[in-house]
Amino acid sequence: MSEQELQALRVRIDSLDHKILELISERARCAQEVGRVKMAELAEGETAVFYRPEREAQVLKRIMDLNQGPLDNEEMARLFREIMSACLALEQPLKVAYLGPEGTFSHAAALKHFGQSVHARSMAAIDEIFREVAAGAVSYGVVPVENSTEGAINHTLDSFLEHDIVICGEVELRIHHHLLVGDNTKTEHITRIYSHAQSLAQCRKWLDAYYPNAERVAVASNAEAAKRVKGEWSSAAIAGDMAASLYGLTIHAEKIEDRPDNSTRFLIIGSRPVPASGDDKTSIIVSVSNKPGALHELLIPFHDNGVDLTRIETRPSRSGKWSYVFFIDFMGHQDDPLVKDVLEKIVSQSTGVKVLGSYPKAVL
């Protein structure tokens, strides 16, 4: 390519950048106008709803359907997520709680779902996130609910038994674990490896192969593990890219997770039910009598109505010894006729049903 051709392409890119800037600014002004209209239409005592999960899911899905490349759908949706995040912040910045400290995978999940323009707040425990949402101190919370390698996050499931919280969305995060070291680490003498218990479990085979004699120390979070390594010369941490960047560590070995498809699913919790987006999930808790065939009877309405179950977990009930509740996720919105029929049948044959919420299926 000649210098003249290259210069012509640069001029074209500059022109396109100018148009993109104008269009983003126009979109931001529209967002401001939406906020003004919402505030003007409020009745006395009402609170404006600026963030609409179902609307954002519909926008992102439409963008991905329209995308013709060369950027892939995930990258294009990520760009639009950030534009929407910045525009929403002009209406009202969202306050979002996540399991901290900074640099955890929960932090990364919060930013993936809401974009960089939210006010993200670090919480020390999952139950604390639930309490902050219930009290109205934050708009939403982000909590891990299951990992593709290690299964359900029981602290999250148990918190749903104790709090009246609505699930408003979900986000799936591809989990890459790295072995991180600090400037002072003597890599040939690593005797201690810090990480969250889940991460240590997800890298068990790799650790057995490369550091079989190193002490594995479970800490509150991967970010906490990264912090500890800074002051020690014989230790390393297992954490992700975000923690490495935030705490100034070097990736000594990358992508050490035992399963290449290792992912964690997070739930977005809030206080308001979410209208249907057209591609939704519903989560419920069901308690049944302790009798033969109880679970089989519970699942029959799903089969008869063609409703797709995506997950079922069992947890001890708080109502008595050796009694259990079922956490069930399935496709569809609670306002869908077939789903309504399923829920009515389940209510009639169980000892209790709690609808945790219907919400858009993860787009990214």
UniProtKB/TrEMBL annotation:
Its main location: cytoplasm. Residues 283-360 form the ACT domain. Residues 1-95 form the Chorismate mutase domain. It catalyses: prephenate + H(+) = 3-phenylpyruvate + CO2 + H2O; chorismate = prephenate. GO terms for biological process: chorismate metabolic process; L-phenylalanine biosynthetic process. It is found in: Cytoplasm. One of its GO terms (cellular component) is cytoplasm. Pfam families: ACT, CM_2, PDT. Residues 95-271 form the Prephenate dehydratase domain. Its EC number is 4.2.1.51, 5.4.99.5. GO terms for molecular function: chorismate mutase activity; prephenate dehydratase activity. InterPro entries: ACT-like_dom_sf (IPR045865), ACT_dom (IPR002912), Chor_mutase/pphenate_deHydtase (IPR008242), Chorismate_II_sf (IPR036263), CM_dom_sf (IPR036979), CM_II_prokaryot (IPR002701), G/b/e-P-prot_chorismate_mutase (IPR010957), Preph_deHydtase (IPR001086). Pathway: Amino-acid biosynthesis; L-phenylalanine biosynthesis; phenylpyruvate from prephenate: step 1/1; Metabolic intermediate biosynthesis; prephenate biosynthesis; prephenate from chorismate: step 1/1. The record marks T264 as: Essential for prephenate dehydratase activity. This is Bifunctional chorismate mutase/prephenate dehydratase. It comes from Thiopseudomonas denitrificans.
